[in-house]
Design a protein that fits this description.
The structure is a homodimer.
Chain A lengths: L1 E6 L3 H11 L4 E7 L15 E2 L10 E4 L6 H7 L6 E4 L14 E7 L16 E5 L2 H14 L3 E3 L2 H31 L8 H11 L4 H4 L3 H4 L2 H10 L3 H21 L1
Parallel strand pairs in A: 1-2, 1-4, 2-3, 4-5, 5-6, 7-8
Antiparallel strand pairs in A: 6-7
Chain lengths: ~250, ~250
């Protein structure tokens, strides 16, 4: 059994608690939150605390807290030379205080508190200061049945940037599309099968080869009509910019 | 049995041929292509021709050709007052010559010739000049088991514009992400579960409520680091623009 203490009661902390709790090889010895009210509902199934001085002994301490709290919280830990990881995509392993053995356990997924996720589908990006500690992280990941990747802090920063494009910016493309359909009293649901197929394609094709539409065809008539149809100046600017990027990629390929 | 003639041997024409051929209620009386070589392989299962003057009698003629060929091809049809539709998302019903009864049969999906698609999942956008002709189009769609929507030419233009955002531009977000991961020797596959979950969320949440990430959090530290990390001037410009759009949306909500 691997003994784990979770620190933090946000989306990631709560998801980790639930998935660890259901795993026979992982023992959550304690759950810490500075807002004890957030985790009171779980106090029958786990020892909870809001006192950093009272942390129990464990094989791994997971700091599932806001990016900006990692540094400070890791410095407050009342012990030395234990294995301590954060779960952030954008922070370096060096964000953790040097009193303990630093590591990163970054689940690359978009978490909402209410949303049930199949954790086995989530890739885990792992990094450790010491190679022996990697064995501990890997054994947790294997127990969960997840895929894992050894990713250093520099790569993880780039991966997080790429994640912003495929998740945050893609979601904003959906938001703009919904503005357009709402404005013309069109049911946004019509677009959902197209959205699903857009994603299915990346499992079969390199995205550059999956590109279709007026930009890649150089269909200026449609492009100009679309730009005229967009009500917002920023949306017109975005349409022009992405169209020119798609168009240039195509030229580079030829 | 509804008698149909397909004109055009591109992606849409070929997909329609295959799905109609498998349907007992639809009889493809003929398949026309000006490049007869493209459809020769099907000549055992359907009457093919490259002579517009030789078109047989049918209940519906489907012009599955390039947007810019619709007008000209519809004017070359050697008959009058028959039901003729195009399959374009961006062209008005008025693009069709007035000699015949005009209609639109627009399957809202991204087609690749090799890609097998479940046609029952594709929404069909229907429009007819005469209300009786809508009955013919609806009976075809019902035979195929597809969802359909009555969408006029003005709405279809807006829908096509929205489709550019959810399909073409979204796919380009994936292309940019792959540039970033490739540049740092990161396996692009790590991002695929995140991409799938991004899309799963729109089946549960309005995209504006599904928005996460540094832009919506106003996390300027991460935003500035990301902009520094981007190598291309256009990618930096795009990052700034989408970030400011996400940020403004949030302010509008508050």
């Amino acid at each position: 059994m691997i003994k784990v203490v979770i620190l933090g009661s946000g989306n990631v902390g709560t998801h980790l608690f639930k998935v660890f709790k259901n795993n026979s090889q992982i023992n959550i010895t304690q759950w810490y939150s500075r807002n004890i009210k957030d985790i009171n509902q779980y106090s029958k199934s786990v020892k909870t605390t809001d006192k950093i001085k009272d942390l129990d002994d464990a094989d791994l301490y997971i700091l599932a807290v806001n990016d900006d709290s990692i540094h400070e919280l890791s410095a407050l830990l009342p012990f030395k030379n234990r294995l301590v990881c954060h779960t952030s995509g954008s922070k370096s392993i060096n964000e953790l205080n040097k009193n303990n053995r630093a590591a990163v356990f970054y689940p690359l997924q978009t978490f909402s508190k209410d949303n049930e996720l199949d954790f086995t589908k989530i890739p885990l990006c792992l990094e450790t200061e010491n190679s022996e500690d990697m064995i501990t992280l890997k054994s947790i990941v294997k127990n969960l049945g997840c895929k894992y990747y050894e990713i250093d802090s520099n790569q993880r920063e780039k991966l997080h940037l790429a994640a912003v494009f495929v998740n945050n910016f893609t979601n904003h493309m959906f938001t703009i599309a919904k503005t357009i359909t709402d404005d013309s009293s069109i049911d946004f649901n019509i677009l959902k099968p197209l959205i699903s197929e857009t994603v299915n394609k990346i499992y079969k094709l390199d995205p550059i080869d999956a590109q279709t539409g007026p930009a890649v065809r150089g269909d200026d008539k449609t492009i100009n009509k679309h730009i005229q149809d967009l009500k917002s100046k920023e949306h017109r600017e975005l349409y022009r910019l992405v169209t020119s990027l798609i168009n240039n990629l195509d030229n580079e390929k030829l």
